[in-house]
Amino acid sequence: MGEGRTMSQSTDDAPPRATLTERPPGTGRGPAQALRVPPHNLAAEESLLGAMLLSKDAIATAVELVDADDFYKPAHGHIFEAVASLFSAGEPVDPVTVAEELNRADLLEGVGGPATLVSLQANTPATSNAARYAKIVEEHALLRRLIRVANDIAELGYELPEDVTKAVDLAESMVFQVAERRVTDSIAPIRDLLGGTLDRLEQLYERGDALTGVPTGYLDLDALLSGLQPSALVVVGARPSAGKTAFALGIASNVALHAERPVLFFSLEMSHLELTQRIICSEARVDSTRMRNGRLNESDWTKINSAIGRLAEAQLWIDDNPQLTVMEIRAKARRLKSRVGDLGLIVVDYLQLMTGRSNAENRQVEVSEISRGLKILARELECPVIALSQLSRSLEMRADKRPMLADLRESGCLTADTHIAAIDPDTGGTRRVTLGALLAAGERDVAVWTLDEHLRFVPGVMTHVFASGIKATFELRLASGRVVTASANHPFLTVDGWVPLADLGVGDRLAVR
Question: In the chain, how long is the greatest CA-to-CA distance?
Fold first, then answer.
């Protein structure tokens, strides 16, 4: 047994694990914090609190824009929290009731006593300006968060992290969270979460629509899932050439064209040209063969022009970089969101072609990390993410072909120096070529000799060759003297069907060309 860089003919992937301590911004010890007074506006804070003591409308406006942590002066944050608590409970809000609320929490003397509340109310310039006061408080809080995050990022750099790429991703995520107003404690009491949940239930009830998420365009699927839900990672698994990409493109087109929501499609398998041609073909309802060979009639051109007109207005973005990592996908998705607003859908085609940590223990760990990274992306952007995945060859070894979760795992690999029997496209003869050579040449859809269900050699197509990291490999020595090096879970065809290398024994008869 040894360890070698292996190649594969199918696929599976996941996100790099953090080697850095991910702590909330605000814990930095940079010199800027010690030497300068952070941005704040006490007059705006006092005016906002005074308006809230005078007007329920001002309270409703304020609680949508700021929270207690946005106030520079801690006493102001306590007063805001007391007012918001009374308001959410439907209780009257005035200096007397707020003083009682603060007193119950043993905070009244700390904020200056009842006199402070009366003073805030009396010195309010105008309750009608509450939204502007709240905006000023929010903006200064945002600047303070930005300063804290900048200090954290500087400290991160001075620590000389081993994984620099991870450090850059973490820094970008921290800045993104500032813009999203999420640089706060993620721990929340259930009482603070109930209101938002109730509001969503009321919205769904009033809408009277069973579709609560992003519509896929497939009626049966929408009925089953109620649409693609925000923050959900949906994995679509199938064997090669089963229509995964066509299925995902159908959903992406529906979301962009009919739901009119921004869609970001990452294609690690197909180029811009191939994907665009498929989308036009589907939207125009033109025969794909005629589309490929250019033998289009006048009716086809009319349909194509009409489809192009509709697609030109769609918010559909395509990235065909074949060597994307999860961190790059997260960065690109964040940037697009900052340009166009909330995304309706992100699609990754497909999981196993993605690159993870170079030092991952094995490919299965790498794939798991990539999957986790995509789930974090879905949560972070509050957007559904569809990840396409090839099912392992173990599916074909069973009498029951229905897929299971275990089929999403890595399916076994051969080393780069493994020879295969490819079909020469010019002569139709057989050429022996290594998987490493095919990878270096970037060849796809390679014609090869394969066995059918009757164990006869027939032409087939090998869709991809890709590196799948460093794994433990084993040498399988045949009676003919030939040696095949493969991972333990790579299947070989025997008289009893496909069997993983780890389950083979001396004397087993194998089908090897």
Answer: 98
